[in-house]
């Protein structure tokens, strides 16, 4: 039953024998030329042995052992127990049933009985949802690993006759099972498969994802993005609703394209402080097959924060006056003003500062800075002030709002560090801007129609109409175009240039902060006929949107922000912490230590590295491997600062209901191993085919001589002996 096998053709073997014979003659001739010395005979003999061994290696010999199978043949029946099997897309006696119920029914009648006449049948499950013990939580992977299921059977069974796989084919974890299928084929073990489910999706609407922020401020509007998938062959006009318990908080009309998806956001205004449990629902359509995937429940933490704002301007124009009043009357804002009048002393009064906060300690307290028609020059801002503002935005995640005016003083920022923060390219030939004889309005862009800053109504169409009806402006800044990486929210309704419509309301990310450019000075005119309805709301949304990142987590003297705000398991989470000393100044020396504990209790040390610039900023990152609440602890022992917070990490939903079966991979597995794949109706026929299979052939075990380490070591040793021998014999 044992024999040698050579992976070479007859002609290659014949050529090798000819070369081998020629080598023998040359070795003999060389010994003759060297007067038949004994040392030369040993060297030539060693060389001939080496040539022989190398020739054998090139022919790739294998020692084949055939091992007879004495055990009873086995057939393994693998049943899919994953969550996707709960999809109800099978019909039994005209009644819809789930894939799992159909499989349970077949197992109840023991459909494998005909196989027990000639083989031992083992029925097993795979991809069952794990119990949430520490062991499974640490792994952090919940899904279907079809390749691992096949590998486990292949490695464990000794006399496997065939495998029968009953699954929907939805493998979403691990490697492709095709590689393991080739190992089954090498051992002549066929894989038979029954595709449990439909190859086309059920008519269905699916609320696939909801992505709420980690927290919201009381009194602000919170935008909650969502995604709806449609498997209906028609356009669906419906209303998505947000519930707090049984009470409907808000709703929004949406249009979902046929066999497509919709990504949008719904705006919610919290009624109370604390953690709110919300449910988002899409109404069930009459022709839907799976109503259970039309809703998702999530939590949002609602807090009360006092945001600190600094407004810097020169002349007390109308825009400045009404902006100051709006911020001063906002209960969630603490405002300071600095009025740098060109011909008078610094403005004074309630909320006014005597001078610009020109140290890191003083300016670090501000969440948002407004820069009006003020620039760099005598009795205005200095280069060092501009550098401080730039550092505040980039290093401390604060917001910056540019509000240019007819004096054109913001043109001086083009020669300062603030130039890099501007979201637009200004026309330097027109520093005083562009006065208009006729009233113009801001026209929302596609991005602006759904952006939180420009949201006056939850319905996009009504919101767009509101902006068109707002009182317009008679002056605008001279803007050429937006800078790369900026988002244009609104453009000039009349003016165009070589780059298209002139952008006037533009945002841009700068380091860890945000920047907004408002290219008109007439937002105060939005009060006409409606008082503070739109004017106050707009600036309230601007302040809260810009300050959001700074207040993710904080305690006295230490602050922590993280990106992304709502991470999933497997994402890299970037942490940024700012530490202040006892006097409130950002620390310039010292260190920050931290650790993060997963929901299963596994702790990981966070390696924080300081960011240059003297802003007391430290950065670190980690990658969560499981879903749940992570506990983060930070400590700066030298400065006596500590912070504990929680980060909610969601587990990606790999097992989805309503998805069509992956029949293609099951057909490929059957094709590779010379098995058969069929639908649920073909189950009995497939069982019959397995019962007619012949007994398993003897197991073949091959020992590849040419790839054995000891064989290569033998050749290397003989080469070393031959080389040393030549030197000792005096041969060159």
Short synopsis of the structure:
This protein has 14 helices and 39 strands. It has 732 residues and is of the alpha+beta class.
Quickly count the helices.
14
Just name the CATH architecture of the largest domain: 3-Layer(aba) Sandwich
CATH superfamily of the largest domain: Class I glutamine amidotransferase (GATase) domain
Main sheet, how many strands, which sense, barrel?
Answer: 8 strands, mixed
**Helical fraction:** 10-25%
CATH topology of the largest domain: Rossmann fold
**Termini Cα gap:** 49 Å
Shape category: extended
- Topology, number of strands: 39
What is the topological layout?
Elements: E1 2-6, H1 10-33, H2 38-58, E2 61-67, E3 74-80, E4 90-92, E5 95-97, H3 99-108, E6 120-126, H4 134-139, H5 146-156, E7 160-167, H6 178-186, E8 191-195, E9 205-210, E10 215-217, E11 222-230, E12 236-244, E13 247-256, E14 261-268, E15 274-281, E16 295-303, E17 307-313, H7 318-328, E18 333-339, H8 360-363, E19 368-371, H9 383-396, E20 399-402, E21 424-426, E22 434-440, E23 442-444, H10 460-469, E24 473-476, E25 479-482, E26 487-497, E27 500-510, E28 513-518, H11 535-547, E29 553-555, E30 558-563, E31 573-579, E32 593-597, E33 603-607, E34 609-610, E35 617-622, E36 628-636, E37 641-649, H12 663-672, E38 677-679, H13 683-691, E39 699-704, H14 709-728
Parallel strand pairs: 3-6, 3-7, 7-8, 8-38, 10-16, 17-18, 17-19, 19-20, 20-28
Antiparallel strand pairs: 1-2, 2-39, 4-5, 9-11, 11-14, 12-13, 12-15, 15-16, 21-25, 22-24, 23-26, 26-27, 27-28, 29-30, 30-31, 31-35, 32-33, 32-36, 34-35, 36-37
Helix pairs in contact: 1-2, 2-14, 5-6, 6-12
């Amino acid at each position: 039953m044992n024999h040698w096998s050579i992976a070479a053709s007859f002609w290659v073997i014949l050529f090798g024998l000819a070369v081998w014979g020629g080598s023998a003659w040359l070795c003999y001739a060389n010994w003759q030329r060297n007067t038949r010395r004994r040392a030369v005979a040993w060297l030539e003999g060693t060389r001939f042995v080496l040539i022989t061994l190398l020739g054998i290696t090139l022919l790739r010999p294998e020692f084949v052992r055939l091992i007879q199978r004495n055990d009873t043949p086995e057939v393994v029946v693998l049943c899919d127990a994953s969550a996707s099997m709960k999809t109800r897309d099978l019909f039994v006696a005209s009644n819809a049933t789930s894939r799992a119920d159909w499989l349970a029914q077949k197992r109840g009648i023991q459909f494998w009985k005909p196989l027990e006449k000639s083989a031992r049948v083992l029925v097993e499950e795979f991809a069952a949802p794990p119990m949430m013990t520490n062991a499974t939580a640490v792994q952090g992977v919940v899904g279907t690993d079809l390749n691992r299921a096949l590998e486990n059977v292949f490695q464990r069974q000794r006399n496997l006759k065939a495998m029968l796989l009953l699954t929907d084919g939805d493998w979403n974890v691990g490697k492709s099972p095709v590689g393991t299928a080739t190992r089954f084929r090498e051992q002549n073990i066929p894989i038979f498969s029954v595709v449990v489910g439909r190859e086309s999706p059920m008519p269905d609407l699916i609320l696939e994802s909801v992505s709420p922020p980690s927290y919201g401020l009381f009194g602000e509007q919170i935008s909650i993005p969502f995604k709806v998938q449609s498997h209906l062959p028609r356009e669906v006009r419906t209303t998505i609703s947000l519930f707090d318990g049984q009470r409907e908080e808000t709703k929004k009309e949406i249009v979902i394209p046929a066999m497509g998806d919709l990504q949008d956001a719904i705006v919610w205004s919290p009624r109370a402080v604390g953690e709110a449990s919300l449910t988002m629902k899409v109404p069930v359509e009459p022709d839907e097959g799976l109503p259970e995937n039309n809703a998702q429940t999530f939590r949002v933490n609602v807090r009360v924060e006092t945001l600190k704002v600094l407004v810097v301007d020169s002349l007390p124009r109308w825009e400045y006056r009404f902006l100051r009043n709006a911020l001063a009357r906002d209960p969630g804002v603490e405002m300071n003003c600095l009025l740098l009048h060109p011909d008078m002393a610094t403005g004074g009064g309630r909320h006014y500062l005597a001078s610009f906060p020109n140290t890191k300690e003083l300016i670090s307290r501000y969440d948002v800075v407004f820069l009006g028609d003020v620039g760099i020059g005598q009795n205005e801002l200095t280069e060092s002030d501009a550098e401080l503002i730039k550092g505040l935005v980039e290093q401390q995640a604060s917001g910056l709002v540019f509000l240019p005016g007819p004096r054109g003083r913001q043109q001086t920022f083009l020669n300062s560090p603030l130039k890099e923060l501007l979201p637009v390219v200004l026309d330097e030939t027109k520093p005083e801007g562009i006065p208009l004889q006729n009233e113009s309005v801001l026209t929302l862009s596609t991005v602006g129609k759904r952006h939180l800053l420009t949201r006056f109504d939850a319905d996009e169409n009504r919101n767009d109409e509101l902006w068109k009806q707002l009182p317009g402006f008679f002056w605008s800044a001279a803007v050429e175009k937006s800078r790369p990486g900026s988002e244009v929210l609104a453009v000039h309704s009349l003016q165009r240039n070589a780059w298209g419509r002139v952008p006037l309301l533009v945002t841009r990310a700068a380091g860890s902060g945000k920047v907004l450019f408002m290219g008109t000075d007439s937002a105060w005119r939005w009060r006409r006929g409606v008082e503070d309805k739109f004017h106050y709301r707009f600036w309230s949304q601007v302040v809260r949107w810009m300050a959001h990142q700074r207040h993710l987590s904080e305690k006295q003297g230490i602050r922590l922000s993280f990106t992304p705000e709502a991470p999933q398991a497997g994402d890299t989470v970037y942490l940024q912490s700012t530490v202040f000393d006892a006097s409130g100044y950002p620390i310039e020396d010292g260190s920050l230590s931290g650790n993060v504990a997963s929901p299963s209790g596994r702790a990981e040390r966070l390696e924080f590295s300081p960011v240059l610039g003297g802003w007391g900023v430290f950065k670190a990152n980690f990658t969560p491997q499981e879903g749940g609440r992570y506990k983060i602890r930070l400590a700066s022992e030298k400065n006596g600062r500590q912070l504990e917070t929680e980060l909610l990490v969601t587990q990606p939903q790999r097992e989805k209901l309503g998805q069509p079966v992956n029949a293609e991979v099951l057909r490929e597995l059957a094709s590779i191993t010379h098995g058969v794949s069929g639908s649920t109706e073909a189950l009995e026929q497939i069982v019959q085919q397995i019962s007619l299979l012949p007994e398993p052939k003897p197991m073949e075990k091959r020992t590849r001589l040419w790839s054995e380490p000891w064989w290569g070591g033998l050749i290397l040793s003989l080469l070393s002996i031959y080389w040393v021998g030549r030197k000792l014999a005096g041969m060159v």
